[in-house]
């Protein structure tokens, strides 16, 4: 993969990264469910220092009941699109919201995290590693 790029729904926030994705994951935490308005969030982790953002996203801090550390959720103040999250205890990574990528055809999640919060009717494929909560860092 040569480059990751994407933008929010209205185009006011855009980003690029030349870094290879570290992982692609499905997060089932309650906060991701609320932020996305659905049952999980599909995220792509990249080194935060290699992510360039054009525009100024608004940042909302959450403190999940089971994380014990804040998450900083970056989104477009105009259209509301979630762009990325930065976790205080793993702040060297940016977790890009995969729905904002220009090319999503290559996505193949390898992890499912906070599976304890997953909706009971949703089952992960057997080949995907699943963690009841967050994997240790």
Describe this structure in words.
The protein has 137 residues and is mainly beta. The chain has one domain (4-130): Alpha-Beta Complex (glutathione-dependent formaldehyde- activating enzyme (gfa)). Helices cover 5% and strands 38% of the residues. The protein contains one helix and eleven strands; from the N terminus they run E-E-E-H-E-E-E-E-E-E-E-E. The strands form two sheets. The chain has an eight-stranded mixed beta sheet. It is globular and about 35 Å long. The chain starts with a strand and ends in a 7-residue tail after the last strand.
Task: Describe the structure in brief.
This protein is mainly beta and 137 residues long. Helices cover 5% and strands 38% of the residues.
Task: Lay out the secondary structure.
Layout (H helix, E strand, L loop, with lengths): L3 E4 L6 E4 L5 E5 L2 H7 L4 E7 L3 E4 L3 E6 L6 E6 L6 E6 L5 E5 L13 E3 L15 E2 L7
Parallel strand pairs: 3-10, 10-11
Antiparallel strand pairs: 1-2, 2-5, 3-4, 4-9, 6-7, 7-8, 8-9
């Amino acid at each position: 993969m040569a480059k990751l790029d994407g933008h929010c729904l209205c185009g006011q926030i855009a980003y690029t990264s030349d870094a290879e994705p570290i992982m692609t994951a499905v997060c089932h935490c309650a906060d991701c469910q609320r932020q996305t308005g659905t049952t999980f969030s599909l995220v792509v982790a990249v080194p935060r220092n290699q992510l360039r953002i054009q525009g100024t996203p608004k940042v909302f801090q959450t403190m999940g009941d089971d994380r014990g550390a804040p998450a900083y959720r970056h989104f477009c103040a105009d259209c509301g699109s979630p762009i990325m999250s930065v976790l205080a205890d793993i702040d060297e990574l940016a977790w890009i919201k995969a729905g904002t990528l220009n090319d999503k055809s290559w996505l193949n999640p390898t992890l499912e995290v906070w599976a304890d919060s997953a909706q009971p009717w949703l089952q992960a494929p057997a080949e995907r590693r699943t963690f009841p909560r967050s994997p240790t860092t």
